[in-house]
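Example 9 (inverse folding). The structure is encoded as follows.
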């Protein structure tokens, strides 16, 4: 409530009493952190920067047969230390109340967002200048699928799923909304909820929720390269236990936000939602990492993690799973079944968590607790309707400068080496530069390199000539964000 925009939203909503306010705001946010796990091999700078997500609440409308309606939505940017950097109400951007599914950084100051008007899973795409709190509607107000959006590698265009009824990827003009191109993926895809363009938009990976499939596409030819998992799957499937499943089986079910992160690895939020029955499979939802060997046509489970046992660990929709530069996994999750007032196991509405992959321990998290946290339920199992309470679709991590670590100065061989990651994840390499000066700022050397795609490390080394033993290495990205590091030559 320290944010003027939030106060304005509450005033415009007629919220006067504490009960009114807590129907529109979370009751509390609970932060937990293990800095050793957050730092990893990168060090303290890995705990800097921010986490961004759209937090939305829906409740039953008593005047409309208790049908769910969106009551509040906020785009939230928070530090790992629990500082709210910005909280931006989104409800009044479009009629019926807008919240966001697709959430991606276009540049350090700008998010590309896919709007969801009410609960239609469609709306306008927006740019958000988050420092200025400015939302800019795109595509001339064209209503499009909210699940994903990605700026084209060249030109002012946006790639998005074609919609639930259209198994396609579509590219539209960001200015006019005119459809420029569509790639049909039927009958292999249905309900595409994630689409990732790769290799300068020459290829794409697609998450098809209702066919339990991850699909790779040749965008130049408009042809499917392979289908992993699901009834039409043509990859051999290998579980964590080493069991080989026949073609047509599923490694995951009703998944969300499947994304490629380099080294032939895909990160998936496996909802374990049975698309045939509309119920859960009886297993908890999980964060899943799979490896795809395209030569051997094999998909292998590499890592799996669930927040709770079933049923508390089951989330029928939404969920995210991203790889961070440390190798940790960043996820969003909400439980369909919570613990009642006599139990303290699962009393939150939703959470963002960073998990250390090697130990499966929580490195950092924020849990969002709502007013309606099982107030009328004292049992161990307290179900909630799919559209009631606070939830989020996805989450993004970003920094104010590049990450630079393992920087070394070899005085004997007169070389500098370092490892770098840009300030946010991107699907293609992007340009970087470095400069070396002495402690007085006198230039010694400079050069260019490429940050690796998918937030993987870029390994850089270069020679220099100087008698100085104390140096300053500065690494910058294409927007001029710069990280400076002091080096002592040995």
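The amino acid assigned to each position is listed next.
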């Amino acid at each position: 409530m320290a944010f003027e925009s939030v106060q304005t939203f509450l005033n415009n909503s007629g919220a006067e009493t504490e009960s009114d306010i807590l129907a529109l705001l979370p009751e509390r946010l609970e932060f937990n952190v293990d800095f050793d796990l957050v730092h990893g091999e990168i060090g303290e700078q890995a705990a800097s920067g921010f986490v961004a997500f759209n937090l939305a609440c829906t409740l039953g409308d008593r005047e409309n047969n208790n049908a769910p309606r969106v009551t509040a939505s906020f785009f939230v940017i928070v530090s790992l230390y629990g500082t709210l950097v910005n909280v931006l109400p989104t409800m009044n951007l479009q009629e019926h109340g807008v919240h966001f599914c697709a959430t991606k950084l276009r540049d350090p100051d700008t998010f590309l967002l896919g709007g969801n008007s009410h609960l239609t899973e469609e709306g306008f795409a927006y740019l958000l200048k988050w420092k200025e709190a400015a939302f800019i509607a795109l595509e001339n107000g064209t209503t499009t699928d909210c699940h994903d959006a990605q700026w084209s590698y060249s030109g002012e265009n946006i790639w998005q799923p074609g919609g639930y009824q259209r198994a396609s990827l579509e590219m539209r003009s960001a200015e006019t909304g005119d459809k420029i191109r569509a790639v049909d993926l039927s009958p292999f895809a249905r309900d595409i909820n994630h689409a990732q363009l790769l290799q300068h938009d020459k290829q794409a990976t697609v998450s098809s929720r209702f066919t339990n499939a991850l699909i790779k596409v040749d965008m130049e030819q408009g042809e499917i390269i392979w289908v992993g998992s699901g009834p039409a799957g043509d990859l051999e499937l290998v579980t964590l236990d080493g069991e080989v499943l026949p073609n047509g089986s599923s490694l995951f079910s009703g998944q969300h936000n499947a994304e490629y992160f380099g080294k032939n690895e895909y990160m998936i939020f496996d909802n374990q939602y049975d698309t045939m029955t509309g119920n859960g499979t009886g297993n908890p939802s999980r964060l899943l990492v799979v490896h795809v060997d395209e030569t051997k046509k094999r998909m292998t489970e590499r890592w799996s993690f669930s927040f709770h046992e079933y049923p508390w660990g089951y989330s029928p929709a939404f969920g995210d799973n991203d790889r961070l530069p440390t190798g940790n996994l960043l996820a969003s999750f909400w439980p369909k079944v919570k613990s009642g007032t006599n139990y303290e196991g699962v009393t939150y509405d939703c959470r963002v968590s960073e998990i250390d992959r090697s130990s499966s321990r929580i490195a950092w998290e924020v849990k969002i607790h709502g007013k309606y946290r099982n107030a009328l339920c004292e049992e161990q199992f307290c179900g909630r309707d799919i559209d009631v309470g606070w939830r989020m679709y996805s989450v993004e991590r970003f920094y104010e400068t590049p990450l630079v670590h393992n920087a070394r100065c070899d005085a004997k061989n007169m070389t500098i080496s370092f490892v770098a990651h840009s300030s946010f994840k991107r699907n293609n390499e992007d340009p970087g530069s470095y400069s070396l000066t002495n402690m007085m700022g006198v230039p010694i050397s400079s050069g260019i390199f490429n940050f690796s795609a998918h937030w993987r490390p870029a390994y850089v080394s270069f020679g220099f000539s100087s008698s100085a033993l104390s140096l300053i290495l500065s690494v910058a990205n294409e927007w001029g964000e710069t990280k400076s590091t002091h080096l002592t030559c040995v």
